Amino acid sequence: RKEVEQDPGPFNVPEGATVAFNCTYSNSASQSFFWYRQDCRKEPKLLMSVYSSGNEDGRFTAQLNRASQYISLLIRDSKLSDSATYLCVVLNSGYSTLTFGKGTMLLVSP
Amino acid sequence: DAGVTQSPTHLIKTRGQQVTLRCSPKSGHDTVSWYQQALGQGPQFIFQYYEEEERQRGNFPDRFSGHQFPNYSSELNVNALLLGDSALYLCASSFYLGADRQETQYFGPGTRLLVL
C-alpha cells in the first residue's frame, strides 16, 4: 500500500461547481497533514494545513479523520484559477520531511 | 525577501554523465531538503541537510549525494545518470524548530533535468 494515496484524476468541472478530493495515508503515527497546490510546470505551494477539527479558508475546507486515516479537501464555487494539481501531503515525524501523494488534477472550465 | 532559488532552471545531459544542481534557501532558513518529481508523480524525498550534514535520506541510491555549505546553500549531485533520472528536482528550505516540531517548507522553482 502506498504511503499516501489520492483520487486518480483529472477532475473536469464547470465554474461554480463544488469538488471534493480524497486522500488516505498508511502511517497511523503521522501527525501533520497538508494540501499543496501545484500549477503546471511550477513548484508546489502550501494551500492549507489540515487539522482534526477541520479548517476552512474561504472557499476551501479541509477535513481529517484520524480513525480512518483519511483527509479531504472541498472546493466550493470553483474558479478557472483553481485549475491545478492538488497534492495531499503528510509530514513525517522527526525531521519534517514530506511524503506526497501522486496528486489530483483539477480542470475548471467556463 | 528572496525566496528559495535554484539553478540552473533546465539541464540536458546524456546517460552516464554527472550533474550538480544548486539551491539557495530562503533567508533565515537553515535546513534544505531535496525532492525528485517525475512526470505525473508527486515529489519524492531524496535527502535533507542541516548543519552541513545529511540528516535524513529517502529511498535513493548512492549515486545521489549532496552537500550543504556554511551559508546554508546546498548542492545535489547525481552520478552515472540514467534515463529514469529525468525529472523536476525541487529544493525546499525550512527553519529547524526541534525534533517533531512542524516546520513549513518553502519550495524553489525547481531544476528540470532531461537525460538522453
SSE topology sketch:
The complex is a heterodimer of chains A (110) and B (116).
Chain A: E1 4-6, E2 11-14, E3 19-25, E4 32-38, E5 44-50, E6 55-57, E7 60-65, E8 70-75, E9 84-91, E10 98-100, E11 104-109
Parallel strand pairs in A: 2-11
Antiparallel strand pairs in A: 1-3, 3-8, 4-5, 4-9, 6-7, 7-8, 9-10, 9-11
Chain B: E1 5-7, E2 10-13, E3 19-24, E4 31-37, E5 44-50, E6 53-57, E7 64-68, E8 74-78, E9 87-94, E10 106-107, E11 111-115
Short description:
The complex is a heterodimer of chains A (110) and B (116). Chain A has 110 residues and is mostly beta strands. Chain A is built from no helices and eleven strands.
Describe the 3D structure.
The complex is a heterodimer of chains A (110) and B (116). Chain A is mainly β and 110 residues long. The radius of gyration of chain A is 13 Å and the shape is globular. Chain A is built from no helices and eleven strands. Chain B is an all-beta fold. In chain B, 0% of the residues lie in helices and 49% in strands. In chain B, the strands form two sheets. In chain B, strands 2, 4, 5, 6, 9, 10 and 11 form a seven-stranded mixed beta sheet that branches. A four-stranded antiparallel beta sheet of chain B has the order 1-3-8-7, with no helix packed on it. The radius of gyration of chain B is 14 Å and the shape is globular.
